[in-house]
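User: I've been trying to design a sequence by hand for this structure and keep getting stuck. Would you show me what you'd pick, starting by listing the structure so we're on the same page?

Assistant: Good idea, let's start from the same input. This is the structure you sent:
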């Protein structure tokens, strides 16, 4: 059984999620201690419990320690079962926990189910400290499609902090062996489009308009497209998402509104992150850089990519992968911000 120290590196929930994915896909049981020890509220929280129980249901696993605030977990997977699933982050306790983080755990597993699966998830879709749905749809899923991982995602209702209640539906196809076994992301290619997405739920449309106007002021040299939309959500919320579509890769940067935070500040945070990326030599944005390695090893391909920032999330995730797959070669060049996996 593989032993994982959950306090390693950034000491967050990604260690648990990656362990669940790799354990199920490679049928390697694991025992993790010090879960999320690096966080102000350590242990298993509702979104982590949802991910654990979802992985347990999908893989018919034997599990110990799957309870709120537990700091240890034993997970012994069996067979991956395709089908229709429903998972609610607030099932055990009211929570706006991120459905996108639950998806990080279960999606790699469902790609190795014997047939197609459909999953409905309920919780936070646009909440702090997690990828928003727009990023999942426009960046992650489109990138892993290159590795022959096919998943369609749609949002039926947005969910903001603190209530959550958003709804997302995934349709996942089984992985078919990739015909290409060598991937490089060392150049972005031509910039084809920049899009400003500004949305608001249960608040004045003028907030979304102010966000979009400020983002346009910052990014006007790129002649960006603008989408302003009022959306359905159980609680008030607003966000700005900047999508950059290059010839070889998509990137995305977002910022969420909160009480007392001006709409202009929301726009500035997302737009400035895009500019920081654009003026760097990175290709894979730093959010994707730590999510992509799991799919690289699952596709059993050689991949080399340059990112705009080496984060503790990335280094920690590579460490977890090596614990499960010590035969994999992983080279991290922090000076050149290069990652190589084969």
């Amino acid at each position: 059984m593989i032993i994982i120290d959950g306090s390693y590196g950034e000491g967050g929930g990604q260690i648990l999620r990656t362990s669940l994915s790799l354990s199920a896909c490679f049928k390697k049981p694991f025992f993790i201690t010090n879960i999320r020890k690096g966080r102000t509220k350590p242990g298993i929280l509702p979104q982590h419990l949802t991910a654990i129980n979802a992985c347990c249901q999908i893989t018919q696993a034997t599990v110990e320690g799957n309870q709120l605030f537990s700091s240890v977990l034993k997970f012994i997977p069996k067979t991956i079962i395709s089908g229709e699933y429903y998972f609610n982050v607030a099932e055990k306790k009211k929570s706006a926990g991120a459905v996108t983080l639950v998806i990080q755990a279960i999606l790699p597993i469902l790609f190795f189910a014997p047939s197609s699966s459909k999953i409905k998830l309920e919780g936070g879709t646009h909440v702090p400290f997690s990828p928003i749905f727009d990023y999942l749809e426009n960046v992650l899923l489109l990138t892993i499609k290159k590795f022959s991982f096919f998943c369609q995602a749609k949002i039926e209702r947005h969910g903001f902090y603190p209530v959550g209640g958003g709804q997302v539906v995934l349709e996942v196809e089984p992985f078919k062996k990739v015909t290409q076994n060598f991937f490089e992301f060392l150049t972005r290619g031509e910039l084809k489009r920049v899009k400003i997405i500004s949305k608001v739920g249960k608040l004045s449309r003028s907030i979304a308009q102010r966000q979009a106007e400020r983002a346009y002021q910052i990014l006007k040299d790129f002649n960006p497209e603008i989408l302003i939309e009022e959306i359905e959500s159980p609680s008030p919320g607003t966000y700005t998402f900047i999508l950059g579509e290059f010839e070889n890769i998509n990137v995305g940067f977002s910022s969420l509104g909160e009480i007392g935070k001006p709409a202009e500040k929301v726009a500035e945070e997302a737009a400035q992150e895009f500019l920081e990326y654009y003026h760097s030599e990175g290709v894979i944005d730093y959010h994707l850089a730590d999510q992509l390695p799991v799919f690289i090893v699952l596709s059993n391909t050689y991949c080399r990519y340059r990112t705009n920032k080496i984060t503790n999330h990335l280094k920690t995730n590579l460490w977890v992968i090596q614990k499960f797959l010590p035969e994999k070669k992983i080279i991290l060049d922090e000076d050149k911000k290069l990652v190589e996996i084969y």
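That's my pick for every position. To get oriented when you compare it with your attempt: The longest strand covers residues 191-201. Residues 263-278 form the longest helix (16 residues).
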